[in-house]
Design a protein that fits this description.
- Helices cover 40% and strands 12% of the residues.
- It has eleven helices and six strands.
- The chain has a six-stranded mixed β-sheet, with helices on both faces.
- α2 packs across α8 and α4 packs parallel to α9.
- The longest helix is centred in the middle third of the chain and has 20 residues.
- The protein starts with 11 loop residues before the first helix and ends in a 16-residue tail after the last helix.
- The N terminus is likely disordered.
Length: 325
């Protein structure tokens, strides 16, 4: 499924998470299951749809150089068959059959799985998400098949300057730290990840206390809590060693850094980055609003000046990309 985390179309996973953080602040019902899974429910009027999303608190910044890309690799494999649905198409057909929108994404510090569908099919959504997160087969043949897919994805991002510029910007910002590495890893690291690496990663990271389930839309709280308990109470508890990340302390250098990647194209892509604020900082709403004013829509300052008045570029945007710290 889709990998997110770099500039266009890329940091949609991070923006999604930040938006859910804001939503959680105004949610009416929060409950932690006995296995440690945090759940948040938000009834929304005026809709017949519901969206369920599970955030796993692990992303590419939890990796080593050798295993760079493993969080993203695992995200892909969660769609490749479970004990109850052993073939990929069985998962897809059930969801397509009810008109669901579904996908997953990996960012630097979390992985997300979501399903959006009509309210009457919420039990199916919770069934499938829990089945994927607890019963994925992770077969060797599927790992090898998906390895090739991911290598092509790495090439796609590398060979598209519009996508690659975001990764390059974060390499400059964060240097030789996991925050500065590409989410999908490198060709060498993806080729070097073994099934044993994947099994250890899933065994330590995919546990209830490291996950958050949020459901919003046309729901009734008590009924939804029963469904959540039915499908998620059996998830693994928090034993084992959970992966940790190195906190971000300060800029790599106080001197402005520049990276130039020369390509045989007739177009130049430029990204300018500076420090922002973490997910849970109370100023995050202000930073997000500022990013909209600067370059978030067709009436923004950058779009108006760079594209509309001067005609210098087709594409221009601004965003605030937050991490945990």
């Amino acid at each position: 499924m889709k990998r997110t985390g770099s500039l266009p179309p890329a940091r949609s996973g991070g923006v999604f998470f930040a938006s859910m953080v804001i939503l959680v602040r105004i949610m009416l019902t929060q409950k932690t299951l006995s296995n440690g899974l945090e759940t948040y429910l938000k009834p929304v009027s005026g809709t017949e749809a519901v969206c369920a999303v599970v955030f796993v608190r692990v992303g590419s910044r939890y990796e080593t150089r050798r295993t760079s890309g493993i969080a993203h690799f695992v995200e892909h494999l969660m769609f490749k068959g479970t004990k109850r649905r052993p073939r990929t198409e069985m998962i897809a057909r059930e969801l397509d059959g009810v008109g669901a929108e579904y996908n997953a994404f990996t960012t630097k510090d979390h992985t997300g799985y979501y399903i959006k569908l009509a309210r009457e099919h919420l039990p199916l959504a919770l069934d499938i998400i829990s089945d994927m997160l607890t019963g994925s087969l992770l077969l060797s043949e599927e790992i090898e098949r998906e390895r090739g897919v991911i290598l092509e994805e790495v090439k796609m991002y590398e060979e598209n300057p519009l996508m690659h510029i975001g990764d390059l910007a974060e390499q400059v910002m964060y240097g030789e730290t996991p925050l500065g590495w590409c989410i999908a890893g490198t060709r060498d690291s993806v080729n070097g990840i073994t099934r044993d690496d994947i099994m250890k990663f899933v065994g330590s990271a995919y546990r209830a206390p490291a996950m958050t389930l949020a459901i919003a839309g046309a729901i009734e709280v008590e009924e939804t809590q029963k469904l959540v308990s039915k499908w998620f109470r059996g998830m693994k508890k928090g034993s084992g060693t959970f992966p940790k990340f190195v906190p971000y302390r300060t800029r790599i250098s106080k001197v402005p850094q520049v990276a130039i990647d020369r390509r045989d194209t007739t177009q130049v892509h430029i990204a300018l980055s500076t420090d922002g604020v973490p997910y849970l900082d109370r100023r995050i709403e202000a930073y997000q609003l500022l990013s909209v004013i600067l370059g978030g829509n067709m009436s923004s300052r950058l779009f108006t000046e760079v594209r509309e008045r001067r005609g210098l570029a087709y594409y221009v945007r601004a965003e605030h990309g937050a991490y945990h710290d």
